[in-house]
Amino acid sequence: MAEYGAPVVDHAPDSDWAWVTLVSNADYLPGAVALVRSVMLSGTMADVVVLHTPAVSREALRPLSDLGARLAQCGLLPTSEGFNTAHARSAVHGRAPFTKGEKPPFHTPLDNFVKLRLWQLTGYSKVVFLDADVIVLRNCDRLFEYPEFSAAPNVYESLGDFHRMNAGVFVAQPSARTFQAMLARLDVPGAFWRRTDQTFLQDYYPDWNGLTVFDNMLQYVWFNMPELWDWSMVRILHFQYEKPWQKDHPKADRLRPLIDLWQAYHDGVGIPDDIAALEGPG
Fold this sequence. Notes:
Blueprint: E1 8-9, E2 17-23, H1 29-41, E3 47-52, H2 62-66, E4 70-73, H3 81-86, H4 89-95, E5 126-130, E6 134-136, E7 150-153, E8 165-172, H5 176-186, H6 197-204, E9 209-210, E10 217-218, H7 221-224, E11 236-238, H8 256-267
Parallel strand pairs: 2-3, 2-5, 3-4, 7-9, 10-11
Antiparallel strand pairs: 1-4, 5-8, 6-11, 7-8
Helix pairs in contact: 1-8
């Protein structure tokens, strides 16, 4: 019998590798649609697995399965009441407020830890996790050759950010033993992971292997560090903070070219034939 809450994938693997994302509530479905379509269009040889909680119905997830994604329902982690209280939205946003951008109203910090369940996907030898607010612009199967744990730096304001990890894209190796070790370290008396899964993973893997910023290009680079933006190099685009499917947000005008690109992937219409030919910030 599968461990309570562990992911149950609805189709047997066709590959040793899988792209994995998480849809913890229905508000992330638009992002997941654009993401899954973008991965499929990249010509990947890997499976695509969508972890989801019971809060999201199978009917709501149908657009993802229609695109070829495998669905894997899983539960929240078996964390303590004290841990859950400490990582509730009001607690996280109050104790460690986000000052660089605005998280959407559907941001639920506690749900972020569900992505640790990908270590239970032991039918795959290697997985690459992608947050549901990213799009893949060209084939990135090379990432499966990277070791656990590989991630890109959290660079979007200055080069001083290179010491911090961003957990929106990372390479992992499923292992039941690793998952149990993570749970043992995650929920201890007084635990508070300031940026939830991201802070925890950087603590768990202090010697993380660095991917390039182009493997997880954060949208704020567009206006904060335009000299770093190169469409011929950008492979994965990450809409951290405000989401492109929000009807209005404070930075929408400044990010309009990126939002329009995301919309094309979401709709499956108007996707550029040559990403490298797009105009950069200026």
